[in-house]
Specification:
The protein has helices at residues 2-40, 54-65, 84-93, 124-142, 158-165; strands spanning 76-81, 105-112, 146-147, 150-151, 171-180. By secondary structure, the chain is an alpha+beta fold.
């Protein structure tokens, strides 16, 4: 009996150690994967004809909506465009978004002025929607998709995009994000510049 008890204790000890090791690896890998996703993300402007699965579209939107937002106002709305005619119309209205005609879909990140902070805080929607956009871009890269931020606000591009999408006047398109499976693999740019860092004061 003592021998059996000893064997059981040894097996349990080995199992506990193994579980601890797996947990350590998973946690470390998760952290490393997050940083790797950030550092290796790059703008993708060419896409294959493979459709983007609806569950991945929802994951992109969930990631976007998980972004930080001032006073938790969440002053954003997202227009998912997967109709080829609408994608083409957006492409025609934006000088630097011709890749929309090739993309399987686009997500237009908008600010909703009916949801913003009142008074001087209204323009925080720009920061909130930008944070949501970055989350979306990182999630796309993490899932093997390609995407690129094409700017709309605050230029003259707001009017044509609003017209194509039929946006109400209190909804402002910040950008249009083409999304698809990558047909290119550009090297990510190394943007690390120590001279841009200041501690405590300029």
């Amino acid at each position: 009996m003592k021998r059996i008890s000893l064997i059981i204790n040894i097996v349990l000890a080995v199992a506990v150690c193994a579980l601890a090791y797996v947990a350590f690896c998973v946690n470390g890998k998760s952290q490393n994967d997050t940083v790797s996703t950030i550092l290796t993300r790059t703008s993708i402007r060419a896409y294959t004809s493979q459709p983007v699965e609806q569950e991945k579209v929802e994951t992109l939107l969930r990631a976007a909506m998980a972004a930080p937002t001032a006073m938790n106002k969440q002053p954003w709305d997202f227009v998912v465009v997967n109709d080829a005619k609408v994608l083409a119309a957006l492409s025609d209205s934006l000088p630097y978004a011709k890749m929309l005609k090739q993309a399987q879909l686009a997500i237009v990140v908008c600010g909703n002025k009916h949801k913003t902070i009142e008074g001087n805080g209204e323009d925080f929607w720009i920061q909130d929607a930008s944070a949501a956009t970055e989350n979306l871009l990182l999630a796309a890269h993490a899932m093997g998709l390609g995407a690129v931020w094409t700017g709309v606000y605050p230029t003259e591009r707001v009017a044509p995009v609003s017209t194509v999408l039929g946006l109400p006047d209190y909804v402002v398109p910040l950008n249009v994000i083409p999304v698809g499976y990558p047909a290119e693999s550009p090297e990510p740019k190394d943007k690390w510049k120590p001279e841009n860092i200041h501690y405590n004061a300029w």
